[in-house]
Amino acid sequence: MPRNFLSKASVLSDPRLEVLFIQRRPAGAQVSIERLFEQVRAALGREISWETHVSPFASRGLLPRLRNLWAAWRAGRGRICHIAGDVHYLALALPGNQLVLTIHDCAILHRLRGWRREVVRCLWFAWPVRRAALVTTISEATREDLCRWISPDLHHKVRVIPNCVRSEFVATPKEWDTGLPVFLQVGTGWNKNLQRVAEAMRGLACRLWIVGPVDDLQRAFLESCGLDYKCLGRLGDDELLHAYQHCDALVFASLFEGFGLPILEAQATGRPVITSQRSSMPEAAGDGALFVDPEDVASIRAAVERVMADSSLRLSLVERGFQNVRRFQPAAVAAAYEAIYRELADRPNHRVQS
What we know:
Blueprint: E1 5-8, E2 17-23, H1 32-43, E3 48-54, H2 62-75, E4 80-83, E5 99-103, H3 107-111, H4 114-131, E6 134-137, H5 140-149, E7 158-160, E8 182-186, H6 194-200, E9 207-211, H7 216-224, E10 228-233, H8 237-246, E11 249-252, H9 261-269, E12 273-276, H10 281-285, E13 290-292, H11 297-309, H12 311-325, H13 330-346
Parallel strand pairs: 2-3, 2-4, 4-5, 5-6, 6-7, 8-9, 8-11, 9-10, 11-12, 12-13
Antiparallel strand pairs: 1-3
């Protein structure tokens, strides 16, 4: 098992602020949070000195989590700490008056039931949120969801700072495939709504490319729809970028999202976007998407047919997507986090202990 480590990432002669980013030990291909904060850190101003602390163990089981708490306590003394997400419980080991906690979504609370949900609600959300000096969420929808699960009184300490789109995603023109246009579906989890999307595309002259693992039940349903589809599986960074560049449009009719980063990735690449009129997706998409009811197969189908048939609509969606994605550049998101750190450092009760 790899040992815990601190990686120095900025060397300044007289830094005004020192920030320790505390991150999970990634499991498999789950690196979206790490990618996000790599972009944020690279765009921080020169007056911020930062390091990263990666938990020594994957967050599974009691003993590994206790060891992660001990490691976070040892690393977190003497600076502002920012838990970047997914290991919220580490807040219990850190000084609350110098702690920023980022929460990406509350999806697990929607899935669990009974005592398991209550345990997770307390250990992963309620106690860490109350301990942290400031909490950030990646969308207003997640902020409202969090306050519903914990307490409406938390609004004053929860700020919205959205995700940023990675700098590799740039405009890549592609002529629309008038024969069999490719619609890209990113994700296959419970919330990604793959079966309704497949049903909506039944009989249409198009192809569906699917990013993420497809289980036997999903594959059987895809076969039953008679779709021309391709399962791309889990993709690395370069492979994912390639998928956006070679598709014709994104269909992202999710039931629930904490943010909806594929929307921005498609917009930045210059692809028309179809997405859901619910959760955080309207926030992410702005005016640059065609919205659907994700639980209505006819609504999804009508949107796909419109995008396939209307070249003027496609051009308009692409142009509005380019305009929208400007809001989510790394420099703007990093500046918002920097303001959070300064606010925390300027508070009268802020005291960094050595």
